[in-house]
C-alpha cells in the first residue's frame, strides 16, 4: 500500500475546476466543466444540531472507554474466551477499517464517474485484493486465530502483495491519463 500511496502522491495536480472571472465578458467561466461535481450531498439535520451531536459523541466515548471496564466487573457477563481473543475496541478498529476501505473504494469509483476519468475506476478495482486480505484477517481473528486456519494468514499476505501491485498499476494508469489530458489542453 505504501508503494501505491507514493505513486499517487507523485501525480500532477488535478486541473482547477473552480470558475474564474473573465474580464472581457464580465462572466464567470469554468475551464474544466467536466470536473465540476454533479452529486449533491444532503447533510442530515441530526448533524446540524450541536446538542444531539455532542450527546452522540459523548455516549460513544463513554461506551468505548467505560464499557469494557464495567463488563469485566460483572460476573454475569464473564465469557469463556481464549486468551488470544481480540478485545471489543480492537474489533471496532478492525471492522471500521474494513468499512472505511469499502467507502474509499465507492468514493474513488464515484470520482471516476463524475470526473469522466475512467482510470480512477481502475484504482477502485485495484483496491479489491487488499479488501480480500482484510476479510482474511477478520475471519482468522473471528475464529480466535485457529491453527487450522493459518492458511488465511498466507492468503492475506499474498493478497496484500497483489493489492500493492494492482494499486501501483492503477496509480500509474491515472498518472498516464492525467499526463495525456494535460497535453490535450
Automatic annotation (TrEMBL):
The chain crosses the membrane at residues 52-71, 91-111, 123-143, 155-175. This is Ycf49-like protein. Keywords: Membrane, Transmembrane, Transmembrane helix. InterPro entries: Uncharacterised_Ycf49. It comes from Trapa incisa. The keyword Transmembrane helix applies. It holds the Pfam family DUF2499.
